[in-house]
Amino acid sequence: xxxxxxxxxxxxxxxxxxxxxxxxxxxxxxxxxxxxxxxxxxxxxxxxxxxxxxxxxxxxxxxxxxxxxxxxxxxxxxxxxxxxxxxxxxxxxxxxxxxxxxxxxxxxxxxxxxxxxxxxxxxxxxxxxxxxxxxxxxxxxxxxxxxxxxxxxxxxxxxxxxxxxxxxxxxxxxxxxxxxxxxxxxxxxxxxxxxxxxxxxxxxxxxxxxxxxxxxxxxxxxxxxxxxxxxxxxxxxxxxxxxxxxxxxxxxxxxxxxxxxxxxxxxxxxxxxxxxxxxxxxxxxxxxxxxxxxxxxxxx
Length: 300
Description:
By secondary structure, the chain is an alpha+beta fold. It is built from nine helices and 16 strands.
């Protein structure tokens, strides 16, 4: 404590110089901005923007549709991080792709690119245009369709769609998957859906319709998922909802194998993803051979 107090002037000067030189260094970077955003995954976008804000990195709205480095960044679904800012060195760490090292001895984290760790599309930009600064991130509140539905549809592209599926099945909702792309008439008009879209057929449920709708609405709010309603199984394009390209989804029942030959760190990562992020519990031991046969997926 005494040492810190004795050196307080030096430490304050050092901290101020660190951020001042960061702005100057960032202004010299050929990349004026990093642009990022996943057009189809709002939850992934929200998590990554919050991650940047937690590290005091300035993030701004992207004001125009742009195409960079093979990626299409849409207005309203992408963001801009300027390099000329006090946290420039942190920005560079988050986005730079280090492919060569002067020394063969280094921490494995030296090669990490956080944007890649999030699976986030991003690219450098020589433009310095930005929109409004993002001060906070709020989860979207999607209106639930109020029309009578033949089926409800959920896009599988969102990060939390698997958690939504697992909770629907736990609630006793019968869910099917459409294995081909299609376009359907929904409460928002025509909507193109990718292969893997979840379908909840209203007439193929064991529960009362009111309970079904309440369950879907409650879980959609919990997982921030947009639910689409269609009044017919005949689609505008692609396969129809009664096609043989549509099938029931079996509820996953996974178990993790641990012990000799299994990396504890990797096992922990998988467990965290399944249990904490997706809400899919995965026991980590089997009591008997007969119990093993009850699991659908074994992870190691």
